[in-house]
Amino acid sequence: MGNKKTDKVANAMAAVSQSPFKLVKSNPVINARYDLSTIQVKILLHMISKIDHTKDRLDTITISVQEFKKITGISTTAIYSRINIELDNFLKKTIYNKFDGGLINTTIIAGYTYNNGLGKFNIDFSPTLTPYLLQLKTNFTVIDIRSLLQLKSIYAIRFYEFCKESERLGTFKFEVEKLKDILGLGDRYAKYTDFRKRVINVAQKELQETSDLYFTYEEKKKANTVVLLVFTIHRNDNIAVPNDDGSIIEATFEVVNEHKKKTAENKDLSEILKLVGEYGASEDLILKWLQAYPLETIKETIAYAFAEAKGGKTIRNIVGYIIQLLEDDKFAELLKEKETKQKEEREKKRKAHLEKAREEGLNMNVFNLKKKYHTYCQNRIIELLKTDESCYQYVVNKLSTSLETQFPFESFKKYYSNTVSIENIIQYLDINPSFNGAIISIVESAYRQQIHAHPDAIALQKEGKKIGINLL
């Protein structure tokens, strides 16, 4: 028979490997120093989510151009060159962490290739990272990649990982300089006020608005200088993590929350003991309370007794008074009424939040549809330029003769050393917004029917009418 704990870990890893949404990240990697762009870290997370934890070695990770569009949000016509630029820079990036169990100091990816026919990039992890990405037995965190890919700031992504790693403990802390080092800031934000404003508060605001976990923090000073930050983790009850497969939660629950399960009873005992231990309440008595009443009922009863004493009520034996309250049916009814009112308030807030979310969802649908239509128009214009020689000649003539397009066209010619071609024009659309706008304006004015009367355009226009907007 195998070790039960080992079997649980193996089952958890197998379940994670089968999910397109779950990833396992070793805690030494979460707390390592690296300086990646938001797009690069999203590529890294997607790569980690594709690791097969049932294997003994790291496979080459294959990512299609369509996957890149989805995970990075890049939807430009020059996506191939943009991905190449990101991966070229990614090749130079390193990851470093010196911790109790060892040292990591390596590049993150070893190299990549691109298959033009299939439209897929093949990327290899650095082999040095194998023990920190594969066959993990302990010291790891399971994360839903959807919780990370929705975040826009690299700092929000890093702090979400810190929160997820320490979620079962409810808190984590960093020395200020250590945290700046982990985030790869170097000499940036030398002033603590700038670091707090542009890094910590940015991450905190984004997580609080969009994530299921967020944090508050307390500053610890030494000689008027903030040297330590203590973070408290909060669950955002208004935002749920999508769950694609309950078996994964079931398989990983005992592994990730094992410490929490073992210490729950002791934690509750310690919490109540801190409140009333000095008044003579023994551990045995508190354990009896915990067996007979919900933890919140005990805490509210203690708080009520303390408030009564503070308000001037003569109470000779505070513990005896708490016992009396716990056994009093009328007091129990009072607590129930209070709980009912609190539930009603929470329900009001929940409904208000749902209504706000519905309105925001409608606004987001409008934004996304307008963005989709703009992308369609640009792609249609590019198609016309490629397939209709008269359209291409018309555009070149307009660029050469129109005063409105003189500046962006001069910029284009300077960039390509006066080489005017359809390929250069299409590529420059993604480089210069002014040039992009000029091309769209020129083609739309002369080819409006071909663009907006196309079946794809009409289908999108109908979608717009359903939600009350006109895309033309």
Automatic annotation (TrEMBL):
Gene3D superfamilies: Winged helix-like DNA-binding domain superfamily/Winged helix DNA-binding domain (1.10.10.10). It comes from the Bacteria. This is Replication initiation protein. Residues 23-164 form the Initiator Rep protein WH1 domain. InterPro entries: Initiator_Rep_WH1 (IPR000525), WH-like_DNA-bd_sf (IPR036388), WH_DNA-bd_sf (IPR036390). Belongs to the initiator RepB protein family. It holds the Pfam family Rep3_C. It comes from Arcicella aquatica.
